[in-house]
Design a protein that fits this description.
It is built from one helix and four strands, in the order E-E-E-E-H. By secondary structure, it is an alpha+beta fold. The chain has one domain. The protein has a four-stranded antiparallel sheet. The longest helix is centred in the last third of the chain and has 16 residues, at 48-63. The chain is extended, with a radius of gyration of 17 Å. The model is unreliable at 76-81 (pLDDT under 50).
Length: 81
């Protein structure tokens, strides 16, 4: 597939300046991701089902309450090293 045929979409959280965002393009059997600052650079691609599992996992994690920091974590009461 020719990358110029893909319709790339940028996150609504990118604030319009390209910042630290990625762009995503969906094809018939795959989804592609690239750095919004490097449109001609490399792109990662995977099947639609693995992409859906990835995005669903992100949504599930976002809807979960964060676990309290435990011992040994950088934000807990324990020490590292």
């Amino acid at each position: 597939m020719d990358r110029t045929e893909l319709r790339w979409r940028r996150s609504s959280h990118s604030m319009g300046n390209g910042g630290n965002c990625v762009e995503v393009a969906a094809a018939e059997h795959a989804v592609f991701v690239r750095d919004s600052k490097d449109a001609d650079g490399p792109a990662f691609g995977c099947g639609r089902e693995p992409w859906l599992a990835f995005v669903t996992g992100l949504r599930d994690d976002r809807n979960r309450a964060p676990a309290p920091p435990g011992p040994g974590s950088a934000h807990g009461t324990g020490r590292l090293g």
